[in-house]
Every structure is written in C-alpha cells, then in structure tokens.
Amino acid sequence: MPKDESVYSYSAVLMGSPILLKLFRRDEALAGRVFALIKRYEDLFTVNRAESEVMDINRAAGQRPVSVSAAVYQLIKCAKAASVPPASAFNLAIGPLVKRWRIGFQGDSVPPEVDIQALLAITQPQDVLLDDARQSVFLAKPGMEIDLGAIAKGYIADRVRDLLRKEGVREGLINLGGNVQTLGAPEGGWSIGLQKPFAASGELVGAIEVVDKSVVTSGTYERYFEQDGRRYHHILNPHTGYPLDNELDSVTIISTDSLDGDIWTTLLYGAGVEAGRQWLARRPDIEAIFVTKRREIFLSSRRHFRFTLLDDGYRLIDCTA
Ligand code: FAD
Ligand code: MG
C-alpha cells in the first residue's frame, strides 16, 4: 500500500448499529452496494420488525414449517449446530427470553422468576427442526422464537468481505458495530481498538493489529440496564434464563470468518477464561482476548495478531509466553 494513499470512509446506520466501511479508493457506488447488501440481509434476519423471513418462521411456531431463502436456512443450520451441545452458552432459540427481558430496548426490567422458568421450556434448540430438502424450518412448540442477534452480523460481515474481494478490493474494512472484518494489510496491518468496559465510547484498553482477519468483540457493557443496584446485560445464559454471570467484561475473537468470531464470543462468554482457553487449545484458527472484571487481559495465543496494551490500569497475561 503506498503511504500517501488516503482512506475513504463511508458510514450508515443499519441493524440499530453504526456501520463503517473503509476503502483506499473513492467509490461511492461500491459503498452503496455494500450498504444495500447489508440492508437486504437485515430484512431477511431481523426480529426487530414485524416482517422478515425469520419472523415468518417465528409466527408459524407450533403450526407449520416455513421454507426460507438459502442464506436464512444456512445461518439457522449453523446456529443450531452451535447451540445443541449441552455445554454451549449459545442458543439460537433464545428469542422468547430476549423479548421478555428487552435488554437494550425501552421497557427493560427483570422478569418474575416464574416467567423465566416458563420461557426456558420454549427455548430448546433441539425443537428447531430443519428439513434440508425443503430448506424449511419448523419450531416445534408454540411461542418459540429464533433470535440471530448474536450471529447475523458475523455472517453479513463475511458476505461484505466476499463482495469487496470480488470487486477487486485488496484492502478494506467493514465494521458492523462489534464485528470488524478486514481485507489485506495497509501499512503492515489494521489497527483495531479494544474498548474499555463501561468507559466512554472511544476509551481503549488496547489495540489489536491484524491482516485479513475478523475481530469480533462481545461485551456486557454494550447493552445493559440497572435495577436495584444490579446490572443486567444482554448475553443470556440459556440454561438459567438470566444474564451470564462470571469474571468477564468482554471477549474478543480473532478468526478468518466473522461468523466463527460471533459463535465463539458467545461460547467463551459462557465458558469463562480457564475452560475457554482449554477449548481453544484444539482450535488454532480461533484466538481470544478475555477482559476480566479484575482488570486482567488474557491472550489465548497470538499467532494472527499483535496486541498493544494502552491502559496501565490493566494487567496483560499472555498465556503463550
Ligand atoms: P452479541 O453478544 O453478539 O449478541 C447478543 C445478542 O444475541 C442479544 O442482544 C440477543 O439478541 C442474542 N442473545 C442473547 N443471549 C444469547 C445466547 N445465549 N445465545 C445466542 N444469542 C443470544 N438493534 C436495535 O437497537 N434496533 C434494531 O432495529 C436492530 N435490528 C437488528 C437487526 C439485525 C438483523 C441484527 C443482527 C441486529 C439488530 N439490532 C438492532 C441489534 C441487536 O438487537 C443486538 O443488540 C445485536 O445483534 C447484538 O450484537 P452484539 O454483537 O452486540 O452482541
Ligand atoms: Mg456476536
């Protein structure tokens, strides 16, 4: 990348999130196509509006299977596979609990215990029944709802990368708010800030440098509310129905595909630092940065990124050193 070439940034608000595209050429037409692609997927996946293919599936819960487009079917199939292992904290059928808590939306409050227990019965991932031949999805119990909020941005970030690559873009970046996907390597790498939990937006604990990688961060500080002096955040434990409660403030995943980043941030949120590191020992393609409430930053490994600590209130623990 020549040093004097400028970055062109294009922004939009989609999926309730600020979206940023960076290119090294001025290309409004391409930026427009990228935002249109994101919008098209949002229209298929959203559960924040009355109409989408996922809403069609949810409305037919307990009644009939619904045939959907290839993208929706593929993503649901992938999300189900991540959800069914008993130790998984990921659950694509978490919808009824997400809707009941409303965390990050108006009217959020702690539901009565009896409501949570009742809703747990209709959030079982095995009750999402798939038919490859018909490309159809059937939610076996009335009231069930699929929620792809934890995974759809990753899928979309990967499709944006594919489009940019097809259009001959060698260096570019798309940030979907939590999911960053990069192409190529300007000046030796893309520098991506790691947000300081519960601090003002833009305050960083560290910087991650990557080439051709996805960087996904999931944090309890992103969407939460407080009630009676307690904080309730938006990543729910599918086994209890309450927000996941452990030593973590955030998990960041560095991987090739942002879809993997999305699945693994949620899995590792559930696992915590110790178990999470053991799981990753068998996945050299997935690397994690854990930020704990005790102000420690654990790096599971650093094969595919460089990390710079920017806040000396935090202690860096490099598990590979
Ligand atoms: P992640 O940690 O990746 O995911 C957390 C989200 O996943 C939760 O918000 C919940 O939806 C779901 N979830 C919670 N627990 C689990 C679990 N155990 N397993 C699996 N999933 C879980 N926001 C708006 O404010 N307005 C909108 O109109 C809007 N539209 C959207 C449309 C689409 C297609 C998508 C993908 C997102 C949209 N959002 C919208 C944002 C959405 O509500 C979530 O806040 C966002 O997807 C969370 O992503 P994250 O990476 O921040 O968090
Ligand atoms: Mg996610």
Radius of gyration (Å):
20 Å
What is the CATH topology of the domain at 171-317? T-fold
**What is the CATH architecture term of the domain at 171-317?**
Roll
Mean pLDDT: 94
CATH homologous superfamily descriptor of the domain at 171-317: ApbE-like domains
Helix and strand succession? EEHHEHHHEEHEEEEEEEEHEEEE
Which percent bin holds the helix content? 25-40%
Largest sheet, strands/sense/barrel: 9 strands, mixed
Return the CATH class of the domain at 171-317: Alpha Beta
- Helix count? 7
Uncertain runs: none
Question: First CA to last CA: what distance?
Answer: 32 Å
User: What is the number of E strands?
Assistant: 17
Q: How do the strands line up in the largest sheet?
A: 1-2-6-7-10-13-14-15-17
Name the overall outline.
globular
Beta-strand percentage range: 25-35%
| Distinct small molecules bound, one entry per kind | flavin-adenine dinucleotide, magnesium ion
